[in-house]
Design a protein that fits this description.
- The chain is of the alpha/beta class.
- 53% of the residues lie in helices and 9% in strands.
- The strands form five sheets. It has a ten-stranded parallel β-sheet. It has a two-stranded antiparallel ribbon with strand order 1-4. Strands 2-3 form a two-stranded antiparallel sheet.
- Helix 5 links the parallel strand 6 and strand 7.
- Helix 16 runs parallel beside helix 18, helix 29 runs antiparallel to helix 30 and helix 29 packs across helix 32.
- The longest helix is centred in the middle third of the chain and has 24 residues.
- The protein is globular and about 90 Å long.
- The two termini are 49 Å apart.
């Protein structure tokens, strides 16, 4: 019996249209060759296409190159209806190469101005949805050309970062060129003037969803002319004249949802909008100080039939009141809606609410205002977890990013709020995040891995991640060809590797080789992934068994390469720390000698003791201290200028951290075991700083040093 996927076909006018495939069990055997091995090239075409659909774009292209038949199937239009270029450098040349596959693309996501410039070369004139981020450098000219080349465009979203170089002129061009537009969300525009908004009202008769988010100035009166709008967001927009808003927006005949989060809207404006607008159903006002500080309004607000979402309201309860059946659990309102019979009006509102809430909660988490512990613990974390289960990919991503952000107290010192982290764990968040990390969509993989990494700073969460199979998932993601995915996965392994109980599991999952391979794969242009990979290897190298495996899979060479060639201090510090930990097992394995014998290793570490960054100098000195326990290394360090460098370091660090003082003194002590080095230390003036260090508050213990650190939080 075999499982065969058949594709249903329907007809729309004269064209055949692919409908979703379904699985059908048939009494026939899968094609086998003479040895009883499956011959994958003889699979039915529909089955192969179904396999392709489960892969990301890069893997589809790789699989397509295996044979002529699969190359033909790999460019099937049904596989290329959407394209996510965010993780890739997409210039005009790359776009031209992709053009042959993009004729039928309907949805495109991109990142950065260079990719925006290249979009027109995809020749995807049937594009219906375009979404871009990191759009600060996109100009009016680029956006106008994109609009002119894609007349069928129905949805355009640019943000959440500011579109600083886009003006009202580009909005007017969009209005004229894209009459089918129904969704327009733009962030960070300096001024959206009346002419631009009136052009949208005139030419885009189907425009129902508008967002001018984090803008400096928006013409309130002109927005009152967009009669088709049903959902409007001005979240974070400044200089709003709320008297004009309450005067003109109440006349919008179709307005159902309004988002004024992170604005200075007044209680009087809220009451006016609700009492005078015939159509307005939901107003989202998260993180609006004027409302939250008015204790009378917050405590007594009541407007039957009109829903207010704010930090002082029970958001689950408010959303649940949209539905006639109030007997169900309010916390399940989002899942109940997704599983219920479809109601067009409710679906519109709930779909918009998911997007608005995911965006608003992420912004609240990023700004981290004081006094919100109760909100996050009582409903904020639960809301983000429910939103992670949305069918909207960008909502899922923002919710995961929100989880990664709201638990962080101090990113520099890798501190998270234990209560918030464990609230996520108690509500099933670890399993949800791991499920997202298993997705074939690389955007979801990256954001889920980031959240897992940050949450794993908490020891209890780290234990839960390991117990639910998270280490294997992260090790697999660390092998990704997508740098963002690999970087976040390496960060997760870095934080998990702090726990002694997780080191062996990471090694068994192939994590050591994956981390070493990352260093070679992204040796240039990937400072973030290199720092995380080196940091994880440093923690793992503190374990004797893991340290030997790190050496076996090429870790010594990889880390020395970083110490020699990388200019980013974070990478230098972690590479030096990893080499220090590898060299700390002199009595039990040969890594100490192996590091010393690696070409350029000692010279690189000596050079790093001259770094302007204390962390780099401390770890480099610690590595030289550990290496000095080997006789050959001791003499080689001196020959590489180590005595002079360490004496200079000892002179300069009298006011530095105790850790730096300890390692500088320890490295000199290690070298002084040799009589020749002792004489050289005295000749260089090294005795005086050693005496001074001995008299200082730093406690120097002349033993081999290990260290395990947490990673940086995002």
């Amino acid at each position: 019996m075999s499982r065969r996927v058949r594709r249903k076909l329907a007809r729309r006018g004269k064209d055949k249209v692919d409908l979703p495939s379904y699985l059908e069990i048939e009494d026939e055997k899968l094609s086998l060759d003479g040895k009883g091995v499956v011959d994958w090239t003889r699979l039915p075409d529909d089955t192969v296409i179904q396999l392709f659909s489960c892969l990301n774009y890069r893997d589809r292209a790789n699989l397509s190159s295996t044979c002529k038949t699969w190359r033909t199937l790999g460019i099937s239009p049904c596989l290329w209806q959407s394209l996510d270029l965010r993780a890739h450098k997409c210039d005009t040349g790359t776009a031209a190469l992709l053009a042959s596959r993009c004729a039928n693309i309907q949805k495109l996501r991109f990142r950065g101005a260079e990719s925006a410039d290249a979009i027109i070369n995809l020749q995807a004139r049937g594009l219906r949805e375009i979404s871009g981020d990191y759009c600060r450098k996109i100009t009016d000219a680029t956006l106008s050309v994109i609009a002119a080349r894609h007349e069928a465009l129905e949805s355009l979203q640019l943000g959440p970062d500011f579109c600083e170089r886009i003006s009202s002129d580009a909005i007017k061009a969009i209005a004229v060129c894209c009459p089918k537009l129904w969704k327009l969300r733009l962030s960070g525009i300096r001024e959206v003037d009346g002419d631009a908004i009136n052009a949208l009202a005139k030419h885009c008769c189907n425009l129902t969803d508008v967002g001018f988010i984090d803008c400096l100035n928006v013409d309130e009166m002109a927005l009152g002319n967009v009669a088709s709008v049903r959902f409007l967001s001005v979240a974070g927009t400044t200089n709003m004249k709320w008297a004009l808003v309450s005067q003109h927006w109440i006349k919008l005949p179709n307005l159902k949802g309004l988002d004024v989060s992170r604005t200075d809207i007044l209680p009087s404006a809220v009451l006016k909008l609700f009492s005078s607008s015939q159509s307005l159903k939901v107003l989202c006002a998260l993180n609006c100080p004027s409302l939250e500080e008015d204790t009378s309004f917050a405590a007594n607000y009541s407007n039957k039939g009109k829903l207010l979402l704010a930090l002082f309201t029970d958001i689950f309860k408010v959303v649940a009141s949209l539905f006639a059946d109030t007997t169900k659990r309010e916390r399940n309102v989002f899942s109940d809606w997704r599983n219920s019979k479809k109601d067009k009006n409710l679906d519109e509102i709930m779909t918009w609410l998911e997007w608005i809430l995911s965006h608003a909660l992420l912004r609240v988490a990023e700004s981290n205002p004081q006094g919100l512990d109760n909100f996050w613990l009582s409903q904020g974390a639960a809301l983000l977890l429910r939103l992670m289960q949305s069918v909207q990919e960008d909502v899922q991503e923002r919710a995961a990013t929100g989880l990664a952000t709201f638990v962080v107290i101090d990113d520099e010192n890798a501190s998270v709020d234990g209560g918030r982290a464990e609230a996520v764990m108690r509500d099933g968040g670890i399993g949800l995040l791991l499920n997202l990390a298993r997705s074939w969509r690389e955007g979801l993989q990256s954001e889920a891995a980031k959240a897992i990494a940050n949450l794993s700073v908490n020891a209890n969460v780290a234990k839960a991640v390991a117990e639910e199979g998270g280490i294997n998932i992260l090790a697999n993601l660390a092998r990704s060809m997508n740098r963002m995915v690999a970087e976040e996965a390496a960060g997760g392994l870095w934080n998990l590797s702090v726990g002694e109980e997780h080191k062996g599991a990471i090694a068994e999952a192939g994590g050591l080789k994956a981390l070493v391979d990352l260093i070679f794969k992204w040796s240039t242009g990937g400072d973030g992934v290199l720092e995380r990979a080196a940091g994880a290897l440093a923690n793992l190298a503190a374990d004797d068994k893991c340290s030997m495996e790190v050496a076996v899979v090429g870790g010594v060479h990889a880390l020395v390469m970083l110490a020699r060639s990388c200019k980013y201090e974070g990478v230098q510090e972690q590479a030096a720390r990893a080499l220090a930990n590898l060299a700390a097992h002199g009595d039990s394995n040969s890594n100490n000698a192996a590091v010393g014998q690696e070409a350029g290793a000692l010279e690189a570490l000596v050079q790093l003791t001259r770094s302007p960054h204390d962390g780099v100098r401390q770890e480099a000195a610690g590595a030289l201290w550990n290496l000095s326990f080997d006789d050959r290394n001791r003499e080689a360090i001196a020959a590489a200028g180590g005595v002079e460098a360490l004496v200079a370091l000892a002179h300069s660090c009298s006011n530095a951290s105790p850790g730096l003082q300890e390692r500088a003194a320890g490295a000199l002590w290690g070298l002084s075991v040799s009589e020749a080095n002792s004489i050289a230390i005295g000749r260089e003036g090294g005795v005086a700083p050693l005496i001074a260090l001995a008299r200082s508050e730093a406690e120097v213990s002349y033993n081999v040093k290990y260290s395990s650190d947490l990673g940086r939080l995002i």
